[in-house]
């Protein structure tokens, strides 16, 4: 069953974006911190901060705060996490320079899985979100497929890439798709940094982002 679910999600993630056409494209910047606090060998606390900008920096598009409690099983290969997120979006009104603030509270459940294939590492993430956006309630499914490839003998430098598809439960099923490629450096056993380019495809538009990411485990 799990194998079939992986194949279906993989097919969606790789094939669906080819049916989407992008009409507009803008370049922005995402500053991302992702932390993981290990309580013991089984339990962990996830915490995350993302500051997303419309341009290089200074024009806030979205502030995202996320946390959750996770449980690791299957000899460390899988993790189930129950989480909460707060998202503040600063949306432009039409073609004007005016913005409107939109608040979202989000509950989510996710399952992550790791696969080692030679020197390659595959990461799967299945996430289901319940989204309270102002007075509206939405649900969304996300599937993330990531790949890490070491480029040095020690593995301290690596290439990273992923594709993530977002599907709504309502009539407009396709929400967005993200494609990312970057390079990372494992500074020590607790900290790694990564920089890369991401293209985010919507139904009728797209956006380009430069991502700068810090991962901390303690």
What is the percent of helical residues? under 10%
Stretches with pLDDT under 50, minimum 5 residues: 15-24
- First-to-last CA distance: 34 Å
Topology-level CATH name: Porin
User: Class, according to the CATH hierarchy?
Assistant: Mainly Beta
Q: How many domains would you count in the coordinates?
A: 1
What is the overall pLDDT average?
A: 90
**Computed Rg:** 18 Å
Q: What global shape is seen?
A: globular
Q: Note the main sheet.
A: 11 strands, mixed, barrel
Q: Spatial order of the strands in the main sheet?
A: 1-2-3-4-5-6-7-8-9-10-11
Structural class of the helix and strand makeup?
mainly beta
Q: Which band does the percent of strand residues land in?
A: over 45%
Q: SSE order, as H and E?
A: HEEEEEEEEEEE
Number of helices: 1
What would you give as the CATH superfamily? monomeric porin ompg
Question: How many distinct beta strands?
Answer: 11
CATH architecture: Beta Barrel
């Amino acid at each position: 069953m799990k194998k079939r679910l992986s194949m279906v999600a993989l097919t969606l993630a790789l094939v669906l974006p080819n049916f989407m056409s992008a009409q507009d494209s803008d370049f922005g910047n995402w500053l991302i911190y992702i932390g993981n606090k290990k309580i013991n060998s089984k339990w962990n606390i996830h915490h995350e901060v993302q500051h997303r900008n419309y341009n290089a920096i200074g024009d806030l598009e979205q502030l995202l705060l996320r946390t959750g409690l996770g449980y690791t099983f299957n000899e460390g290969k899988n993790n189930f996490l129950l989480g909460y997120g707060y998202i503040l979006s600063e949306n432009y009104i039409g073609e004007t320079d005016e913005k409107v603030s939109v608040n979202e509270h989000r509950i989510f459940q996710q399952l992550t899985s790791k696969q080692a294939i030679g020197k390659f590492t595959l990461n799967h993430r299945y996430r289901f979100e319940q989204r309270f956006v102002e007075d509206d309630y939405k649900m969304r499914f996300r599937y993330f497929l990531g790949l890490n490839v070491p480029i040095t003998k020690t593995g301290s430098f690596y290439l990273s890439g992923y594709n993530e598809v977002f599907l709504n439960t309502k009539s407009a099923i396709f929400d967005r798709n993200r494609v990312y490629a970057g390079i990372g450096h494992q500074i020590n056993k607790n900290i790694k940094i990564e920089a890369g380019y991401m293209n985010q495809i919507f139904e009728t538009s797209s956006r380009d982002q430069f991502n700068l990411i810090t991962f901390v485990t303690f």
